[in-house]
Amino acid sequence: MNNTLKMLIGAGFAVAVAFYANSIIGQATHGGFLVLAAVFGAYMAMNIGANDVANNVGPAYGSGAITMTGVIVIAAIFEAMGALVAGGDVVGTIKKGIIDPAAFGGDPMLFVYAMSAALLAAALWLNLATWLKAPVSTTHSIVGGVLGGGIAAGGFAIVSWGTMGKIAASWVISPVLGGVIAAIFLYIIKSQIIYKEDKLGAAKKIVPILIAVMAAAFITYLTLKGLKHVWHDLTTMLSFLPQTKKPTIGIALAFGIVGAIVTYFMIKPKIVAKIAGMDNARADINVLFGIPLVFAAIFLSFAHGANDVANAVGPLAAVNDALVNLSISKKAAIPLWVMVVGGLGISIGLALFGPRLIKTVGSEITELDPMRAFSIMMAAAITVIIASQLGLPVSSTHIAVGAVFGVGFLREWLDSKKMDEKQQKLQVEVEKQRALKAELDSLRTEEDYKRQVELIDAHKAQKKKVKSLKRSLRENYVKRGMVKKIVAAWVITVPAAALLSAIIFYVIKGFAV
After folding, report:
1. What does the radius of gyration of the chain's CA atoms come to, in whole angstroms?
2. Rounded to whole angstroms, what are the CA distances from 236 to 86, 231, 492?
3. Which of 267, 363, 446, 473 is deepest in the core (most CB within 10 A)?
4. Residue 430: exposed, middle, or buried by beta-carbon count in 10 A (0-12, 13-18, 19+)?
């Protein structure tokens, strides 16, 4: 499918959303702004699908466990399901509480301009980041948009700078936590299985435990992040569940432990049977991690759809609420059509433009195989659980990409002995090159012509050999250029989205007046 057709399909979705929004707003005062916000929301949802979803399925694709078509189908279905089934019916109108609604002076239209500007600014920034092949945080993009629109509407005093400080801290906390946890799991796999003489015997013991731990992590993660919006409905239908406002960490861990036990006893005989026909080789061990990656992609996609759809529909729901009630609320109901825009938009954006970032996360930062991808996706779930309980602000994008970095850097560290051997070999070859050059320089007479020709050819060959060795030393397991580009994009996401939002706010306000 060429880019023109993709853009036409995306534009068609936005136009359909606009027509629907226009049909339900009718002749209401300022109804055109709901249509405008709906288009921006559709555009934002598609950009979330194009950029953010890659973090959930990129490692599974890069490892070769799932094809590109497979990861797109899995993510598209379960992102939409997460959004529609567990996306919630109420959302905070101000993302992360970064600005005070009271600062709009009770003027709902100023609020509408700011939220509309935030949506468009965040979507434009995500669009640019996707084009640059930089996975960035959609949460930080919408935070930047709300920040810029809020400042333009009410000045700098409107901002909760303490909250913004915590968000800035997540630029470091998220990737470091994700990287460390992914590296720990990969080291466990290598030290307890790959480095053992009897790899198959070790795999029989360790792999079922690792898969059970994965089940515990994902069930806990899904309970905390994917079911929190519908927990009240679940407890109403299932009276035996704890009657809490939302699932606590204790409830989530209990579900996770039960899931881990069931998974262990189900998977253990299957692993043993599968190993019986395998060779004692790393490639065969890798096969054991393939199926768990499919379930990891499903769980992460569902939880992401449930949790991050608010980045697209939150400001849209806030605009809808402000226009319907002509007031500014801290919480707004999410109409079903708004949630459909979010869920369907994410899936459409993923299907049309997602492969670009899926390839980046999966194969263009470091080389992945199933055991490395397994470690990354484990880290994605466990880091969110730990951070949410410690009250640390984290980004799922930064966690996942940080985990990819962590896996790559661990490989470099573990293979440092090989690098030392290469370095020693390079020094020997450089000395040979110098000796040839010294001998060549010492030959001056015509009688030495034949030897000079031999030495010139030998020196050229030696230079090529030295150059090849130097190149191999520069070939790191983690592509430094990608790391620098991605980190730079992370740092400028909030200010870039904020600046765009402020400009768009003044444009919208100018046209409105």
Report:
1. 27
2. 15, 9, 44
3. 267
4. middle
Residue ranges of the alpha helices (H) in 309-415?
310-325, 336-363, 370-390, 396-414
Tokens linked to 197: 């003489």
Give the global pTM: 0.84
Q: What share of the chain is helix, strand, coil (3-state, %, to 5)?
A: 80, 0, 15
CA distance 58 to 317: 30
Give the residue from 45, 145, 125 showing the smallest Cα distance to 505: 145
Cα–Cα distance measured from residue 497 to residue 96, given in angstroms and rounded to the nearest whole number = 16
- Per residue in 312-370, pLDDT tens? 888 888 888 888 887 887 777 888 898 899 989 999 999 999 999 999 999 888 889 99
Pair 13, 117 in one domain: yes
Torsion on CA atoms 417, 420, 425, 427, rounded to nearest 10: -170
Domains contained in the chain, number: 2
pLDDT at 221 over 70: yes
Domain identity same for 327 and 428:
no
Based on the fold, state whether residues 341 and 459 are members of the same structural domain.
no
Both 378 and 433 in one domain: the answer is no
Cα–Cα distance between 97 and 157 in angstroms, integer? Answer: 14
Q: Which two tokens stand for residue 430?
A: 């450089």
Burial (CB < 10 A; 0-12, 13-18, 19+), residue 68, is middle
* Structure confidence at residue 346 (pLDDT): 92
Q: Are residues 61 and 81 in the same domain?
A: yes
Closest C-alpha to 209, from 194, 184, 187, 192: 192
Single out the residue of 290, 281, 291 nearest to residue 200, CA to CA: 281
**Which pair of tokens denotes residue 320?**
């809808």
113 neighbors 328 (Cβ within 8 angstroms): no
DSSP for residue 186 = H
Domain that holds residue 154: 3-415+477-512
The dihedrals phi and psi of 92, each to the nearest 5 degrees, come to: -70, 130
Listed residue (261, 279, 132, 253) closest to 198, CA to CA: 279
- What pLDDT does residue 14 have? 94
The SS3 assignment for 30 reads coil
Considering Cα of 91, then 127, then 401, then 216, what sign does the dihedral take?
positive
Same domain, 466 and 352: no
DSSP string, 397-431: HHHHHHHHHHHHHHHHHHTHHHHHHHHHHHHHHHH
